[in-house]
Amino acid sequence: MLGFSKQSDLYNLSKDILENNLNNLITTLEDMYQRGSETSKILENMMDIINWSCKIKINTNLIKDEFLSEDDKNFATYITKYDHGKLNIFWQSLMKGYDEIKISPHPHSTLEMILLRCAFLLNDQSQTSPEEKKKSEINQNINQASPNLDQVIQNKVNQLPEKSLKDKIDM
User: Fold this and answer.
1) Angle at 79 between CA 10 and CA 65, to 5 degrees
2) Which residue has the higher pLDDT, 129 or 18?
């Protein structure tokens, strides 16, 4: 049906974001566009999936629902390995993107960037080791004077006129 997406495609998009598989993400999205999927519907459906995923994390018995398809059960089992925090960030990113897509003159590229941003947020892209991150966080608390500021202060001190001893005493 025009505008709607296959549930399996939406599950694959979610997995690609969580696993940081950006090439598959873009390819799947392009295929969905070619089949007539509407950008806002994709985003709405993904929000539904992440909401459902959070519910599964709270109550794993939901996986046993007899009305779930095999794809639903497979995704539900898959999603249980992710923590609530990661799913919450995913949800918040999609919500922010939903507002952005409403005002965008280019909804397709906006959706791509929204989903890429989700992947980047969920999968730390920094090449910094955990040890370097700790050092970086510690060093942020050290107040170091700027060399430029030190030079400006020294220049101001050097520019002060020399006062005679008599002038200094009279002050």
Assistant:
1) 85
2) 18
CB 128 within 8 A of CB 136: yes
125 vs 58: CA distance, rounded Å? 28
Instruction: Give the single-character DSSP code of 64.
Output: G
CA–CA separation, 7 vs 28, rounded Å? 12
DSSP reduced 3-state for 69: coil
Cβ neighbors of 8 (< 8 A, separation 6 or more) are 71
Question: For residue range 74-115, what is the model confidence (pLDDT) as tens digits?
Answer: 999 999 999 999 999 999 999 999 999 999 999 999 999 999
- In the DSSP assignment, the letter for residue 3 is B
pLDDT of residue 164: 72
Residue 151 predicted with pLDDT over 70: no
H-helix segments, the chain: 7-18, 22-34, 39-58, 70-79, 84-103, 107-122, 130-139, 147-159, 165-170
Q: What is the full DSSP assignment across 86-128?
A: HHHHHHHHHHHHHHHHHH-S-HHHHHHHHHHHHHHHHS-----
Tokens of 27: 């390819």
CA 85 – CA 17 distance, rounded (Å):
15
d(CA 112, CA 131): 33
